[in-house]
Amino acid sequence: MSISLNLNGQTHEVDAEPGTPLLWVIRDELKLTGTKFGCGVAACGACTVHLDGEPVRSCQTFIEDVEGAEITTIEKMAEDTVGAAVQQAWLELDVVQCGYCQSGQIMNAVGLLRENAKPSAEEVDDYMHGNACRCATYQRIRAGVLRASEILEA
């Protein structure tokens, strides 16, 4: 089936079977590999992208459900004010250890800061809870989100 996708501000025509996860279209068809495969059951958050500005798990978002929606991946985040602030905070605080989960962490952090520009540490923990980090850098992730909030406030 042919579907027109609005991905990172560009239109892409893709052929995919119904039921194909958006993750595989992004990675295999469009060759954007920043979005990671983690678990395949929407439990870890490594595959998080934004769908009409909201964080979603692309491993469980099917291609037929996204036609006409605006899809944003980690590759576009540096051009976004909130995304750039999160990435700056991540670098300042050396949040990343192995880095595998970080695109999903950043995408989710951007979603949080768009909803709540000045979250408390507890609100960060609650919002980011569904994003797993195998290296357990949760304290640095929390600090990164809080620092990004400060950057945006300045």
TrEMBL record:
GO terms for molecular function: 2 iron, 2 sulfur cluster binding; metal ion binding; oxidoreductase activity. This is (2Fe-2S)-binding protein. The keyword Iron-sulfur applies. InterPro entries: 2Fe-2S-bd, 2Fe-2S-bd_dom_sf, 2Fe-2S_ferredoxin-like_sf, 2Fe-2S_ferredoxin-type, 2Fe2S_fd_BS, Beta-grasp_dom_sf, Diverse_Oxidoreductases. Residues 1-77 form the 2Fe-2S ferredoxin-type domain. It comes from Parasedimentitalea psychrophila. PANTHER family: BLR6218 PROTEIN, OXIDOREDUCTASE WITH IRON-SULFUR SUBUNIT. Keywords: 2Fe-2S, Iron, Iron-sulfur, Metal-binding, Oxidoreductase.
